[in-house]
């Protein structure tokens, strides 16, 4: 079902004004985690004004340490819904557990499956029976074949609205958080009709690398971007080092849109 051989034209995923794939380019941005109403609304309004198309934010966070902030859970989902109401931006948030599926599906416009759950086949099958589009992140050390097969799990259950997200893979390199595999973009797009977006924030872990890799992602043929943006990155509860502030995000949108026009 994922194969471009059976569907030569690119698939477009459309939620409100957000359009990704089939020639459309979408920019989704927001904080790593929803922290408070003030933080999220500031981010959402800044992103909207800067020209972003969608709002991201985690309410259930997959943290390396069980003692780190785990997310505001349902309260976070409610804040995302409030931010959508205020800005009109469609919302994307991560689903981590089967037990939270109904709750997340109720509030979000797009369900994110994180890198750590890319091969959680029960979870993939369950979102495959959902009515909402799914953004499927590439696993921490997943091959392209494994990533596409994970998308196949979702589609096999009937949900054909899948967006693939390259977010860097683990290599021997430690200078960056992950190694952003941009060669995956044209390669995967030759194999599948599904849209492919790039997350240069988790892909690099470094704020300074986000703009150059976002631009490179556009040139590589990506259908969109997922960018971590925080109104005050220095005080972010998670992933502050890779988060852009609103003015930097606005500059990114400007240069990215130019590149999209020219390609
Ligand atoms: C995220 O997008 O907040 C996230 C946790 O990403 P990943 O699953 O790619 O690590
Ligand atoms: Mn993050």
TrEMBL record:
Keywords of the record: Transferase
An annotated Gene Ontology molecular function: aldehyde-lyase activity
Domain DAHP synthetase I/KDSA: 17-252
GO process annotations (BP): aromatic amino acid family biosynthetic process
Name of this protein: 3-deoxy-D-arabinoheptulosonate-7-phosphate synthase
Organism taxonomic ancestry: Bacteria, Bacillati, Bacillota, Hydrogenispora
